Structure to design on (274 residues):
């Protein structure tokens, strides 16, 4: 009998990379995306089930849970999410609300919907994908920073509440070289227009010009990140936290050791906010 894992956000990036790795390791995979047509090129097989799943839609979540009722669902990977960017004082309330609906409320709604299925199996586990930005904050990513801080808090709380029966693993990647980065320009929306004539105009222009190049040079490959996550999925005793990437490890250490005024100076300098 095959154990199954459900993964959210499989259209690109870490989620997409995790699907074939899990299948190779003997897992059955329920691959989900808001638009399931984006998963049509995955090789078919008895070890794959493709489902539409919009984590902001209660009916979609309920339908996905019902479609998995016949499976030995042993694991859940809450990976779906996106990054809303821009200076906080130019942010619209609906942009912040949408960020939390997907990255935080949707994550917890999916967790609650699938917990009854997970509890039927021995040694179930949940991987909650946060970010290194759940432990520190950077300029121009306030909504994303806040949402990932919230994911960390939810994961730690859930572990205290149910950790003896369901392992809760907090995954904290650093920068990942994925299509997630390519969506950043779209996430700006009309922010460059809103910023025109403000102190942020040059900052945003510089960010758009430099960030993609830096991501390509320093970011980790999505498959390498997925391999680390697979180890946590397969572990007899899953870890509490998985910090992935040298940047996530060393930047976190640096912030912990550096006096706060020095850290803030460094961040302002890096983002042109001096």
């Amino acid at each position: 009998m095959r154990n199954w894992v459900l993964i959210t956000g499989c259209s690109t990036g870490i989620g997409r990379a995790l699907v074939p790795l899990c299948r190779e390791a003997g897992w059955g995979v329920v691959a989900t995306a808001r638009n399931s047509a984006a998963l049509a090129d995955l090789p078919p097989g008895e070890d794959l089930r493709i489902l539409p799943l919009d984590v902001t839609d209660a009916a979609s979540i309920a339908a996905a849970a019902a479609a998995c009722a016949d499976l030995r669902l042993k694991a859940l990977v809450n990976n779906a999410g996106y990054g809303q960017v821009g200076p906080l004082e130019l942010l619209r309330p609906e942009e912040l609300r949408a960020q939390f609906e997907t990255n935080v409320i949707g994550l917890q709604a999916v967790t609650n919907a699938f917990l009854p299925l997970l509890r039927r199996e021995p040694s179930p586990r949940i991987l909650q994908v946060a970010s290194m930005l759940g432990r520190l904050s950077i300029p121009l990513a306030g909504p994303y920073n806040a949402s990932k801080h919230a994911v960390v808090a939810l994961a730690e709380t859930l572990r205290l509440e149910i950790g003896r029966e369901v392992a809760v693993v907090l995954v904290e990647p650093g920068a990942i070289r994925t299509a997630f980065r390519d969506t950043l320009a779209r996430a700006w929306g009309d922010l460059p227009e809103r910023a025109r004539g403000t102190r942020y105009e040059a900052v945003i222009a510089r960010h758009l010009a430099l960030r993609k190049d830096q991501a390509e040079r320093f970011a980790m490959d999505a498959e390498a990140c997925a391999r680390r996550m697979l180890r946590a999925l397969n572990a007899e005793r899953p870890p509490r936290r998985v910090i992935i990437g040298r940047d996530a490890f060393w930047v976190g250490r640096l912030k912990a050791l550096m006096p706060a005024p020095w850290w803030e100076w460094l961040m302002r300098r890096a983002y042109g906010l001096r």
